[in-house]
Description:
This is F-box domain-containing protein. The chain folds into three domains: about 5-50; about 55-100, no CATH class; about 100-155, no CATH class. Helices cover about 65% and strands about 0% of the residues. The longest helix is centred in the last third of the chain and has 28 residues, at about 100-130. It contains eight helices and no strands. The radius of gyration is 23 Å and the shape is elongated. By secondary structure, the protein is mainly α.
Amino acid sequence: MDLLPLEIIQQILADLPDFESLQCMILTxxxxxxxxxxxxxxxxxxxxxxSIPRTLWFDAHVAFMASQLPLYQHWQARKQVMEFYxxxxxxxxxxxxxxxxxxxxxxxxxxxxxxxxxxxFASYTLxxxxxxxELRESPLDPVPVSDSEYIRIERDL
Length: 157
């Protein structure tokens, strides 16, 4: 194995089924460890793409498409994204469609942004208004925000 070119060793590492196999493989030989460190991000992304079930790809792709729309985008474009999402059981992907990890990483970033802004919105808004909509006497009173309220705000955003 030590005589194989570096690119072939990296491809072998990328085709492993899971991270435990990768860990065992790179611990067996110094050559495997060097090949892994040479293209670490690429190898990890390839293994991650193989380990995520294909049934989750459609939802991730639609969420990524929705996250790319500007906030001021015309409502018609948002409607098209929702229609695309609603026909997911009827519509099938072409066999050549190979979604990439970068799309899912963008989805994760989008979720973190929504989570942050919903937290900011909830803490700021509930400082002035009660949940029932009435104005508070003193906006400086601490306001406990329940987890269900955060989830509701995230869903609305």
